[in-house]
Write a structure and sequence with these properties.
Blueprint lengths: L4 H9 L21 H10 L1 H15 L3 E4 L7 H10 L2 H15 L1 E9 L15 E9 L3 E4 L15 E5 L7 E5 L3 E5 L5 H5 L9 H23 L2 E6 L3 H5 L3 H21 L9 E6 L5 H15 L4 H5 L11 H36 L9 E4 L7 H20 L5 H10 L16
Antiparallel strand pairs: 1-10, 2-3, 2-7, 4-5, 5-6, 8-9
Helix pairs in contact: 2-3, 3-5, 3-12, 7-10
Length: about 425
């Protein structure tokens, strides 16, 4: 009989045979997390809440400025109007709930003489009244373009808003009056299975969160029983095998002994009885916990100090490199997530101001304020280097002292000085 190579390997290793479990591995889709489960995770599990919140909070906490605008543009008044609208918090909440529930929309309530189900007319818009956030469980995309197939789910003509806590009425809002937020991008065909939205970001890390919770529970049980009291009582076996009264009596004795040790720190025994304590070995438990913590960290986009709120330890462990890399990632997410949102919102706001005969910029660029705050020493070193550069430029005629002064005033380094042509006026 001729033996095939793979049969020979099976006989030697025992792997990949008909009954080998390693040859039957496959991906099993678990049930999707329901809205109630996601809400409970966010409200009662600190790790889940941090995974949802931390990126949003860091990306929006320092605000932004506009550059590339004309000199007549008054950004301070726009900032004031955005603050009245609570715009940054609204954007942050829409992004936050999209990460938790898989999607959300930011509704721009604009007075343009049209109803909410009609396309937004920027030519007749006179006021941006408010911004309203609605999370995916209460929003159903509708009015799809059949020519786009499954891809139409990302660009429906309308959104149907379910109004909870009452009549459960449906309000139809045109797409042009909304800004869409997706928590996790998935293939369009998957969106069909989820009412036009993607899944929560917690879907991707739920296994790791559950495993860590289980391990922490086991560790807590082990720590609870780390010390075991041992009683050697004469006649114990006979009492336990005796009548119900004998069993009850011996249990009462053991309970009294335990309470005496725990509460009174005194133990009285018969001369023939013995008492001792046995400590369980928990060496390696911290290493095991760290393995599951590292597994959760790898499943997220956060470095461990950010996810756990840890302070770096060890030699030369300032954590600056890790945090700088993290903030670089947050800055990239600002460009991907926030820049398109702010651009769309500002275009509506500027159209309203233009219709009210106010100056608006023809072009603008959104610049987010730095997330990493330099130390006093770093600031002083930067100022010195910039001063040296300015001096070289002035000596070589590249720039003038007035131009340098104007730049320093615009950067807030210097305060504005009295104009020379007004000096001496009374």
């Amino acid at each position: 009989m001729q033996i095939r190579g793979d049969d020979y390997a099976n006989a030697i290793t025992g792997l990949a045979g008909a009954k080998d479990k390693s040859s039957y591995g496959y991906v099993l889709e678990r049930p999707k997390l329901q809205t109630e489960t996601l809400s409970v995770l966010y409200e009662q599990d600190a790790m889940s809440a941090r995974i949802v919140d931390r990126l949003v909070d860091d990306a929006t906490r320092e605000g932004f400025t506009l550059t590339g605008t004309d000199e007549a543009f008054d950004f301070a008044s726009v900032q004031s109007e955005l603050e009245d609208l609570d715009a940054l918090n609204g954007i942050a909440d829409a992004w936050r709930w999209s990460r938790l529930y898989g999607g959300a929309i930011l509704i721009m309530v604009v007075n343009d003489g049209q109803t909410m189900d009609m396309p937004l007319n920027l030519d007749t818009a006179t006021k941006l009244s408010s911004l309203q956030v609605v999370e995916a469980p209460f929003v159903n995309p509708s009015g799809f373009n059949p020519g786009l197939g499954a891809r139409a789910f990302r660009r429906p003509s309308h959104y149907d808003i379910t109004v909870p806590f009452g009549s459960n009425a449906i309000r139809k809002v045109h797409r042009s009056r909304t800004i869409r937020f997706d928590g996790m991008r998935v293939a369009p065909t998957r969106m069909i299975q989820n009412n036009g939205w993607g899944p929560s970001i917690l879907e991707r890390v739920y296994t790791e969160i559950s495993q860590l919770g289980e391990v922490m529970g086991y560790a807590r049980s082990i720590m609870h029983d780390i010390s075991i009291q041992v009683y050697k009582l004469e006649g114990l076996r006979e009492a336990l095998c005796g009548s119900a009264q004998d069993q009850q009596d011996i249990k009462g004795v053991m309970e009294a002994l335990r309470m005496s040790v725990d509460n009174l720190h005194v133990l009285a025994l018969d001369k023939n009885d013995e008492y001792s304590e046995v400590n369980r070995n928990v060496s390696g438990l911290d290493l095991l916990l760290n393995q599951f913590i590292d597994g959760l960290t790898r499943a997220t986009d956060y470095p461990r100090p950010v996810l756990l709120g840890e302070t770096p330890s060890g030699l030369n462990a300032s954590g600056d490199s890790t945090m700088r890399s993290y903030f670089d990632w947050v800055a990239s997410q600002q460009g991907l997530k926030l820049t398109p949102v702010l651009t769309e919102l500002l275009n509506v706001l500027f159209a309203v101001r233009k219709n009210n005969n106010e100056d608006v910029p023809e072009e603008f660029t959104i610049d987010f304020n730095p997330l990493w705050q330099p130390t006093a020493t770093e600031k002083a070193d930067t100022t010195l280097k910039n001063s040296q550069s300015d001096q070289i430029y002035m000596l070589n005629g590249v720039t003038s002292a007035d131009e340098v002064r104007a730049r320093l005033i615009s950067e807030g380094v210097l305060s504005p000085l009295e104009s020379p042509d007004r000096a001496g006026e009374t």
